[in-house]
Amino acid sequence: MTRRMTNAAVESFFTRLKADNPEPEGELEWASPYTLLVAVVLSAQATDVGVNKATRVLFVAADTPEAMVALGEEGVRTHIKTIGLFNAKAKNVIALSRILIDQHGGQVPRDRAALEALPGVGRKTANVVLNVAFGEPTIAVDTHLFRVANRTGMAPGKTPLAVELALLQRVPPAYLRQAHHWLILHGRYVCKARTPRCPDCPVRDVCNFAEKTPPPA
Q1: Does 149 share its domain with 112?
Q2: Are residues 41 and 129 both part of a single domain?
Q3: What amino acid positions are annotated as catalytic residues?
Q4: 94: left (phi over 0), alpha (psi -120 to 50) or beta
Q5: Among 23, 63, 131, 205, which residue's CB has the most CB atoms within a 10 Å radius?
Q6: pLDDT values of the chain reduced to their tens digit, one per residue, 217 residues
Q7: In this structure, are residues 134 and 33 in contact, taking their beta carbons and an 8 Å threshold?
Q8: Residue range of the domain that includes 196
Q9: Rounded Cα distance, 152 and 201, in Å
Q10: pTM exceeds cut of 0.85
Q11: Is 3 buried (19+), middle (13-18) or exposed (0-12) by CB count in 10 A?
């Protein structure tokens, strides 16, 4: 098991990631809390690149709950058929849009319980919306972030929720609002699943991963 990272190492970790990328952003394209919500729902078991290709057309046709309901489930399906699980996702997008209209005046609520009550929205999706759209200091744990937190020793945990709660305790307050962006991007492009790019990693000396990828011979 990876040794737990010290508080000083955690501080250094985020200081360096911030120096490399002062204003990190997610890679899903969106223009409003509603389009962000839809994009994140569509991103389950799909790549951001694939979702963006679909939503560039979908959001021209419908970028509000009212327009989405008018487009209808079949219309949504037509636009997102290149994305995995598109049938279930189209159904969820229409259902959540109706609930937003009926219960929230067509607005995305800034409330975790209300978000998680929407079809297709779990804790991770709610965390993304709360953080990205509303600036809340939440951490959305995806597979990349889960791997980085465990591999480095920053916040080991057996479940995404355990990792999330541990990170909320360990990440210095100054970095908390943008922490999940730094960690996801780091996991996606540097701390990769199969062959992590340890020789190029800016935080390799504070990371407690024992099996670091050696530099090229």
Answers
A1: no
A2: yes
A3: 124, 142
A4: alpha
A5: 131
A6: 678 999 999 999 999 999 999 999 989 999 999 999 999 999 988 999 999 999 999 999 999 999 999 999 999 999 999 998 999 999 999 999 999 999 999 999 999 999 999 999 999 999 999 999 999 999 999 999 999 999 999 999 999 999 999 999 999 999 999 999 999 999 999 999 999 999 999 999 999 999 999 888 7
A7: yes
A8: 7-25+139-200
A9: 12
A10: yes
A11: exposed
Do residues 110 and 54 both lie within one domain? yes
3-state helix, strand, coil in the chain (%, to 5): 60, 0, 40
Query: ∠ at Cα 151 (150, 156), nearest 5°?
Result: 20
Q: CATH number for the domain including 19?
A: 1.10.1670.10
Same domain, 185 and 99: no
